[in-house]
Amino acid sequence: MEADNGTVVVLSGAGANNAIDGLMRTVAGLLEKNGLPVKFFDVSRSTNEEWGELLPLLMSGRVSFALSFLGVGQDFQVKLGEAGETVNAWEHANIPFIKLHGDSPAYFLKRHLDQPSVGVNAYHFDEHLEFQRWIHPNASTLAATIDPYIISDTPLDAVDFQPRKAGTLVFVKNGGDPHELISLWQQTLPESISDELIELALAIVAPALKTGRFLIHRFVLDHLDAKRIDPRGLRGIVRLYVAQLDDYVRRVKANMVVKALLPFPVIVQGARWEHVDFSGARARLSGPLDFSATEAVFQGQLGVIDLSPNVDGTGHDRLWRAAGAYAFGLANKSTWLERTLPELNARAYEFDEESIASSVERALGNPSECISIAEAYGKAYRRRYATADFVDKLIALADMSRLEASRDKPALQPYFVW
């Protein structure tokens, strides 16, 4: 499928460990490989001269669509004439603005709403789209899920598997203390609210740790329903509860993994692990690396340890990157892993320390097996997620958004009226 109007504008921005920039440069490269001309702008670093080039391009009619992570640049304003009104550039030029989302609408809600009016909220996880439907029931812009893509795409014949056999497993993850989060609730929220959050946090752990689909917002809504409270007038409170419980469960899972890793000669790569005592541990704590620096982990180590961000139907982006590098990814069991490569899911762990330790021990003791599975995983991922399909979906979403927002719609049968 070809984009009708030429250039795709890809917007990047500042983010932890330069992850946003790394991901958007990856997507820009995929678009170019599939024949689409790309103009890349980093909104956090672009010069006035570069911004001066952007506006004429947007007004030229030669832009097919714009692509952004989490809505970076969605509110780009332009002034019409010397004394004219200020308008949203994407809306004025009717340029579909696709926002790729890797996280829940519980965070940064404004990035998930109807700005711009030609916006498209594209989610990588069905669970997040389902919550967006609840939190924003009267949406006037398009929302959809979109499949994963290839990150760190490395030709198989360019992969050197031999050094990986001498490497180890690396848990690339920032931490966070669950108890610290509870203290934050107690210090900042009304007592009744913090008490209820603590009650919910204690209740959510067991079901949230089970393999399979678990919707945190549904858990919250069921809780309110049991208390005979109508949540429709409490969308802000529901979002607060979902965000806090999502963060809490992620912290519980990550700390469980790290605690299980301490006896093994592995690397924990990330920040905010000060609350964990690594003294006497075989595991080694190393500071965070930016996106490009972590490439050495995927290319040179035995594999990465990952955990999904409270989702089940699609893998985390570190597993997309592992597939791109034909790297071994040791993650929690999921429906997605089972569909993608059952052999990899068979070696994945359940969320309990014994299962995590067993999976790690098996991987460290069988590096050749890890290499073999990594190669099979990279091949299976590429069969399932063709880059051309990812690009075609972006083009299709852009076409829908443009036509929906267009003032001048095509004439069809005389009995069909827009």
Structure description:
The chain has 418 residues and is α/β, with parallel strands linked by helices. It has 16 helices and 13 strands. A six-stranded parallel sheet has the order 2-1-3-6-7-8, sandwiched between helices. It has a five-stranded parallel sheet with strand order 11-10-9-12-13, with helices on both faces.
Fraction of residues in H or I helices: 40-55%
Assembly context of the chains: single chain
- Strand arrangement within the widest β-sheet reads 2-1-3-6-7-8
- Per DSSP, the total helix count is 16
Q: Tally of extended strands?
A: 13
Please summarize the sheet with the most strands: 6 strands, parallel
Write the CATH fold name of the largest domain: Rossmann fold
Kindly estimate the percentage of residues that lie in beta strands according to DSSP. Answer: 5-15%
Mean residue pLDDT: 95
Low-confidence stretches: none
- What's the Cα radius of gyration? 23 Å
Structural category is alpha/beta
Shape: globular
CATH level 1 name of the largest domain: Alpha Beta
The appropriate CATH architecture of the largest domain is: 3-Layer(aba) Sandwich
CATH superfamily of the largest domain: Glycogen Phosphorylase B
Overall domain count: 2
